[in-house]
Design goal:
260 residues, alpha/beta, Arc Repressor Mutant, subunit A, 3 domains, binds zinc ion
Length: 260
């Protein structure tokens, strides 16, 4: 099939390299085994280039008589390719930050550009099987709301959010969105908000896995003694967000002026 944007040579190269960027771009059938794979598959032995047949979808590979590989379970691979994340950035204080939305403009992920992370937002999205694209039309709503927040003209967000986590994590994240702008709550108080007052530590863990900092305001959660405690991308970001919202932070003790 020649429905792909890539040349045969490019597909061979990506298949032999198990190139992560090729995931979802095409399907490779191996004529000697009769099996079809994602190009990212790592079988014990890679096929010889002349034995590779390329298809746009698992359906096409099956129609040509190939069977699905049990290692890489390629069925659904091109559905994964349809998951597009639209990436955009904002330079304004308290940013700069990068964020991504889905097809419908719902926020998927947000990272501060000067945060301390293992990977960039683009790499994280690719790792989760998203194809990363740019489309200012799709990111416009989230971008507009973020800019309003940065300008001090917005205190809550209306853009839909995509919450990727367990029921417990989602419950904690939703509770965080009910902490008003410029206020803080302790981990124990958030635990009580979700009906498990004994689960302060589990609230801390859910906080740490929040992919939408700022929008889901995990920065508004502090220790019972007023200490700032942690923030995923680095404490400087938490200090900056709280300062933006008018919460006084003592630079020497890193304790909030409120609720001590
Ligand atoms: Zn495979």
């Amino acid at each position: 099939m020649v429905t792909m944007a890539l040349s045969r040579d490019e597909m061979v190269t990506r298949t032999l390299a198990s190139d992560p960027a090729a995931g979802g771009q095409f399907i490779v059938g191996v004529k000697t085994t009769g099996i079809y794979c994602r190009p990212t598959c790592r079988p014990p032995r890679k096929p010889r280039p002349e034995n590779c047949a390329f298809f746009a979808s698992p359906d096409e590979a099956r129609a040509a008589g190939f069977r699905a590989c049990k290692l890489c379970t390629p069925d659904g691979a091109t559905r994964g390719a349809d998951r597009v994340a639209y990436l955009d950035t904002i330079e304004e204080a308290p940013g700069p930050l990068a964020f991504a939305v889905d097809d419908a403009g719902a926020l998927l992920w947000l990272k501060f550009l000067d945060g301390r992370y293992e990977r960039t937002l683009e790499r994280e999205l690719e790792r989760e099987g998203f194809r990363v694209a740019r489309d200012l039309g799709r990111t416009a709503r989230a971008r507009g709301e973020l800019l309003e927040y940065c300008a001090g003209a917005r205190r809550t967000f209306d853009t839909p959010l995509v919450l990727a986590g367990s029921a417990w994590q989602k419950g904690v994240w939703r509770a965080l969105t009910r902490i008003p702008f410029g206020e803080t709550r302790t981990y124990g108080e958030v635990a009580a908000m979700v009906g498990r007052p004994e689960a302060a530590r589990a609230v801390g863990r859910a906080n740490a896995t929040n992919r939408l900092p700022l929008v889901i305001p995990c920065h508004r959660v502090i220790g019972a003694d007023g200490a700032l405690t942690g923030f995923g991308g680095g404490m400087h970001l938490k200090v900056r967000l709280l300062a933006h919202e008018g919460v006084q932070v003592d630079a020497t003790t890193r304790r909030t002026g409120q609720r001590v």
